Amino acid sequence: MTIDEKIHKLRNELTKNGIDAYIIPSSDAHLSEYVADHFKAREWISGFTGSAGTVVISKDHAGLWTDSRYFLQAAEELKGSEFVLHKVIDRSYPNYVKYIVDNFPEGSIIACDGKVFSYGQIINIKKAFEEKGIELRTDIDLIAKLWENRPPLPEKKIFELGIKYTGKSRKEKFAEARDIMHKSGASQYLISALDSIAWILNLRGSDIDYNPVFLSFGILRNDDFLLFIEKNKVSKELKNILKRDNVIIETYDKIYSYLSSLDKNIKIYVNPDTCNYNLFTAISTEIIEGDDIAGNLKTIKNPDEITNLKKAHIIDGVALTKFYIWLENTLKSKTVSEYEAAEKLAYFRSQNKEYISESFGAIVGYKSNGAIIHYSPEKNNCAQIKPEGMLLIDSGGQYLCGTTDITRTTYFGTPTKEEKRNFTLVLKGHIAVALLKFPDGTNGYQIDTFARQYLWKYGLNYYHGTGHGVGFFLNVHEGPQGISSALAKRSKVPIKPGMLNSNEPGYYKDGHYGIRIENLILTVQDTETEYGKFYKQETVTMFPIDLKLIDLSILNKNEINWINDYQNEVFNKLSPHLNDDEKSWLKEKCKNI
Fold first, then answer.
1. Helix axes 303-330, 580-589, angle to 10 degrees
2. What mean pLDDT comes out for the span 546-552?
3. What are the helix (H) ranges across 18-94?
4. pLDDT at 91
5. Would the pTM count as exceeding 0.85?
6. Residue 93 above 70 pLDDT?
7. Are residues 403 and 312 in contact, defined by beta-carbon separation less than 8 angstroms?
8. Is the Cα dihedral 241, 243, 247, 251 positive or negative?
9. Distance CA 80, CA 72 (A)
10. What CATH number has the domain bearing residue 535?
11. pLDDT tens figures, 147-192
12. 127: CB partners within 8 A, 6+ apart
């Protein structure tokens, strides 16, 4: 079926069911950012492949709402279909809700599948709709009726991540979570977020590309843990290991009947932002609402995790060194497609025994493609990299010892004055965040300004966040915190020691080039004075910054010192793992300015 044929078929279902419009988000039953193929309903009906976006289809309009990371990509992928792109500038408010309220009359009936919206989302949508007299139905899944040959739910085996990586046993994590659960007055805790389940159980899977998680629900009780998962995903050996820690295996879809039959005397702890609406409303007993306990615990990396993730970044830096040497040498005799570069980078990472997969599909954007913030090269439809111009590569690896995410912007040939200026403005913002010392209670929204200040002086900006949390061999985007100018919940979370965040300001000139400099930074203790505790950032990503793109005239002494100190550290940490030719290449890239 073509995209427009899918729209037509869905409209027929709207008419049959007396519905005026249907909302299709990007999430799954666990409110994941990235989802298994089975849940890619929004992509199936629209053709838009980005990770974030919402579709609303009515009898006379088909719209896709997405943010600035995907404007150029969405415009291209929606081309030729009836879909209209609605650009979301402020991600703190669901703009498609405003569209419905503004364009549908009182008495309209809007529908969605409540399994792929959080309880909190539905409550907010209903509140907005009720003010206009619009009804929201959450009990209907129209996509299931239309999607022929829909991919099945994944059935891949899960595996245990050893304590030498995790630093804490399951029992220790259970005890920490139970303590918080009991203090809230609850005797059970429902876990819906896949990375939280993987973290608390010290288990990993491969149900979702790039994210080592597995489809499941969890219930932490006073004396045991119920894991709702398709039983063939758990080997007999692992089942016996889990049993020793009082982990009981139940079938994945039994979670609904379990929650609907809870004794009235039980109080269950639930996070309304990670629990889907249908699951939340199935609960038959008293609910205590709060932040995701495991989610908050896992974002503070323990000493063993920190040691391991630093090792992962050295491994990653070595792979990047080998890749860029290959790229430079290859470009001396022929061009290299963006797709081939992405494949080769994954190959170099895969040479280490700790490697599992990429942490996301590599963004390799040559010249104008670099201005497409979440650009992904296709094998038969991408640019050829030549030994001239700007190249942006944003990539990462999933290693048993940690998750990496790095962006480097490099230049072949001689950059223009404007290109050097804009790169250096981005670099100044990056350094400002890296050098920042801040008091306890400082949140991501406050830190974000430091990254943008130099671009603002020239009337420039970028429309994505400055930083996101990163998991430990888990999701490359991890909450609850974030560094962003958007007044979203994540950007209001205080940044604490043990949090691993990205530091990635950028600048994008449509049709010309993109610039982004991304390292991962670990928040650590600095000092304590009469004004309280102060924290600082430790950069853990290890790979040189392209000195060719720096305009020294707009750097101050502290910034130059930071660059030289960083380049020296990169060389000292990576060189022991390289051969003589590779060391020589790296030494030249890490020279002082």
1. 90
2. 98
3. 41-46, 71-78
4. 61
5. yes
6. no
7. yes
8. positive
9. 15
10. 3.90.230.10
11. 999 999 999 999 999 999 999 999 999 999 999 999 999 999 999 9
12. none
